[in-house]
Design a protein that fits this description.
With about 650 residues, this protein is an all-alpha fold. Helices cover about 65% and strands about 0% of the residues. The chain contains 27 helices and five strands. The strands form two sheets. It has a three-stranded mixed β-sheet with strand order 3-5-4, sandwiched between helices. A hairpin with a 4-residue loop joins strand 1 and strand 2. The protein is globular and about 80 Å long.
């Protein structure tokens, strides 16, 4: 379906952002840094951190149902008038406006039902209603989109001359034409749409079912037992080396049990997607998938090769961190299970929900007053737009934001535990939510409210870097300086992990296309070969095995990981520009966020922030930023 916009539901030098662009604030409090018997919602505060669906969506379930029934009637009426919409410029313009209004209203209903289910999984009827409504929405718009795609360019140009307001829809119509050029006849297209889910939907379901059925075991500590599946963050930061080792090895052993199943999913899924793409006359699934994102195979592979050639900085970062861990903890060899150890004598930082909110707000001040206004509204618990506290029957979902224009974006997390990961997630998803509200404020058309994932994720990625930089800049002592800067540097260097994963995934698809039979051993060998170009943790005799099982998107959204390569490169470039020219970048970046996705990403990036997706400077700017943090990390370590 070409029109339906989906929800965003869904990771330094002395002149840092924190000290040059924000007012000084007190150092982190002891409450924020304590690590034992920690409650992120002290004094009964959890009640404040739940959604208020009645305030932000519909006042009652009955009211939503009545509104949805009325909307369904209007959607079906819209579908019946799709051909008449092309009779005149005025009719076409009115149809576009009606479609936008209907879609905006529909997405609000979808968000409401999904959030209602995640808030209480006993509301199974809500997820059913969302699924049925999504299908109705697609069917309602298909006819008009198909007709608009067939409208001759000369006719649309003449319509625009007669009614210039139509020009704002040209980019959308061009997208419809591109997709229509690959579609088959109506009968063949219907068959393909019916067959495609049968060929691909089983993989994600089997993957999650297999993980859920795996007993990863428990690790015994001096004071309590920790579940590998549930308490891994606590295990990897435990001061006992044997606890960390057992947690890592039990996780590996659990994945190993079903590695044949995981390999089968990847191989068969790649083969099925390649074959489906060829039916629409693409060379393979990569051509179709990259093309949908304004990318192509050649440019993607060139970028990955550039990153491989620049991976020395990542190996330098890994070596610097490992040498420091070995030195301060007296380890002869640093193993994968040792890499998350805090500095000697410090507890793993934990944050209450309210402290996390304060930190995220302070960290985003460099982005300006308009950004702060929307962020403050989102993060104010009294507005009912945060759901992060535990409650009975709540879905155990990772953090996500619902996002679209025309209604309040909200943030949902299965349970906020107060770890640094949780704070980074809050910053990331807040970035998505604030962008949606800025687009709403500036009247972005619903059809331009979503864009390529790497573009959207780059905005959230900048928020991750800003919050980590803020924590580093305002750390209370040397140990926390080192801890937060290590996180910041490692977070930026995640671009290399995304790169080798993307390279590996493309190789899996290429091998499947060539008819090669892939099994767990061959995929493991491919992983070690690709990853060793980017990271010193991989290669012969690596302790990091089965890394190909852990990127969830390999199984749920094939060839998606490349989005993180581009988004992290962009975020690093944004951060560098913000540091160098705070006021200038703030203005231009806010313009980008408010604009919506009204053109191809390259055009918008060049227009607003002087960045290009295929520029050598995209990589070199990111590498420069990482090199700066590496030098600062060496200084903080006292090297």
């Amino acid at each position: 379906m070409s029109f339906l916009c989906v929800l965003l539901l869904a990771s330094s030098t002395t002149s840092r952002i924190g000290s040059t662009a924000v007012r000084p604030v007190p150092k982190l409090t002891e409450l924020e840094l304590q690590g034992k018997e920690f409650d992120p919602f002290p004094n009964g505060d959890s009640a404040a951190f739940h959604l208020d669906l009645g305030r932000n969506f519909f006042s009652s379930a009955r009211g939503e149902e009545n509104s949805r029934i009325n909307l369904l009637t209007r959607l079906r009426a819209f579908a019946s008038r799709s051909n008449a919409a092309l009779r005149s410029p005025a009719a076409l313009l009115q149809t576009f406006k009606t479609q936008d209004a209907l879609n905006q209203e529909a997405i609000r209903h979808l968000a409401y039902h999904e959030l209602r289910f995640y808030s209480d999984t006993r509301n199974a009827e809500s997820m059913k209603a969302a699924t049925e409504f999504r299908i109705e929405l697609a069917n309602s718009f298909n006819g008009f989109d198909s007709a608009a795609a067939k409208l001759p360019a000369a006719t649309f140009d003449a319509f625009q001359r007669s009614l210039p307001e139509l020009s704002k829809y040209q980019f959308y119509v061009e997208g419809l034409r591109r997709r229509a050029s690959r579609q088959l006849g109506s009968e063949a297209e219907s068959v393909l749409e019916a067959v495609a889910p049968l060929a691909t939907d089983w993989g994600p379901s089997l993957y999650f079912a297999t993980l859920a059925s795996t007993d990863f075991g428990v690790v015994h500590t001096k004071s309590l037992d920790l579940s590998v599946a549930r308490d891994y963050l606590a295990i990897e930061a435990n001061s006992e080396a044997e606890v960390r080792k057992q947690g890592f090895q039990k996780n590996q052993a659990g994945l190993f049990v079903h590695r044949t199943t995981y390999a089968t999913i990847l191989a068969r899924q790649a083969d099925a997607l390649n074959k489906l793409s060829r039916q629409r006359h693409y060379a393979d699934y990569a051509e179709e998938s990259y093309g949908d994102r304004f990318l192509d195979r050649k440019s993607v592979l060139n970028l990955l090769q550039m990153l491989a050639a620049s991976a020395g900085v990542n190996k330098q970062i890994e070596g610097l961190i490992n040498d420091h861990i070995a030195k301060v903890h007296g380890l002869g060899v640093v193993h994968p299970w040792d890499t998350m150890l805090p500095e000697p004598g410090m507890e793993v930082p934990r944050f209450t929900a309210r402290e996390a909110v304060r930190i995220v707000k302070e960290a985003m001040k460099p982005l300006g007053d308009d950004y702060q206004q929307e962020l403050s509204s989102l993060l104010d618990p009294s507005n009912g737009r945060l759901d992060i506290a535990p409650s009975p029957n709540k879905a155990n979902r990772q953090g996500f934001s619902t996002g679209f224009v025309g209604f309040p974006s909200v943030f949902f997390q299965g349970r906020f535990g107060g770890y640094l990961d949780d704070v980074v997630t809050l910053a990331h998803e807040s970035g998505h939510a604030v962008q949606n509200m800025l687009m709403t404020r500036h009247g972005v058309l619903p059809r331009y409210a979503t864009g390529p994932a790497y573009f959207t994720e780059s905005f959230a990625g900048l928020c991750e870097l800003l919050v980590l930089d803020y924590l580093y800049a305002h750390a209370p002592d040397q140990a926390h300086h080192a801890y937060f800067l290590q996180w910041l540097t490692s977070q930026g260097a995640e671009v290399f992990r995304a790169a080798w994963e993307s390279m590996l995934e493309q190789e899996i698809f290429d091998e499947a296309a060539g008819g090669k039979q892939l099994n767990a051993d061959t995929i493991e060998s491919m992983t070690q070969s690709s990853a060793s170009r980017f990271s010193s943790w991989f290669g012969p005799a690596s302790e990091r095995t089965l890394a190909w099982v852990q990127p969830t998107q390999f199984f749920t959204r094939p060839l998606y990981r490349v989005n993180y390569v581009y988004s992290r490169l962009l975020a690093l470039n944004y951060f560098q520009r913000l540091r160098r020219h705070p006021s200038q970048f703030q203005t231009r970046y806010l313009g980008l966020l408010c604009n919506g996705y009204t053109a191809a990403p390259n055009a918008l990036l060049s227009r607003f922030v002087d960045v290009g997706l295929s520029d050598q400077t995209l990589v070199s700017g990111a590498i420069d930023m990482l090199a700066t943090w590496t030098s600062e990390l060496r200084r903080v370590y006292g090297e």
